[in-house]
Amino acid sequence: MHKEEHEVSVLGPPHSTILPRSTMINIQSETSVPDHIVWSLFNTIFLNWCCLGFIAFAYSMKSRDRKMVGNMTGAQAYASTAKCLNISALIVGILMTIGFILLLVFGSVAIYHIMLQIIQEKQRY
Fold first, then answer.
1. How far apart are CA 115 and CA 123, in angstroms?
2. Which of 14, 56, 115, 125 to pair with 24, CA 20 to 30 A apart?
3. How far apart, in whole angstroms, are the C-alpha atoms of residue 47 and residue 37?
């Protein structure tokens, strides 16, 4: 028994007294959530058919508020809604503007022909 104790004491403690350490680094990725505030403002001022631009502007402001508080999930939800409303406002605005221009052109041509007929009928008398 005495010999076994001696062998153990010869081995002794581990040669390296440094314990392995692990380091964990948490990198928070700054998730950029676009709030589409400029696009919403443009649609509010120029293409505000059916008030879609104003509603998109309100959702953009809510998205910006949520982003400032740190609620990225809520900010993303409001930004997505604002984006959909902005796309709808842009499409409806462009179609309505083109329709208004066509109505103006065809209406002007129709009025011109009616006036021309009235002038020709007055010249007959």
1. 12
2. 14
3. 15
- For residue 15, give the DSSP letter: S
Residue pLDDT, tens place only, 55-66: 999 999 999 999
Residues in the chain: 125
Among 53, 49, 38, CA closest to 86 = 53
Cβ burial of 106 (10 Å; 0-12, 13-18, 19+) is: exposed
Task: Indicate the residue type of 69.
Answer: V
Q: How does pLDDT run across 31-45, given as a tens digit for each residue?
A: 678 889 999 999 989
- How many other C-beta atoms are found inside a 10 Å radius of the C-beta of residue 90? 19
Mind listing the pLDDT tens digit for each residue in 64-91? 999 999 888 999 999 999 999 999 999 9
Q: Please identify which residue in the block is written with the tokens 């680094």.
A: 25
pLDDT digits (tens, 9 = 90+) for 94-103: 999 999 999 9
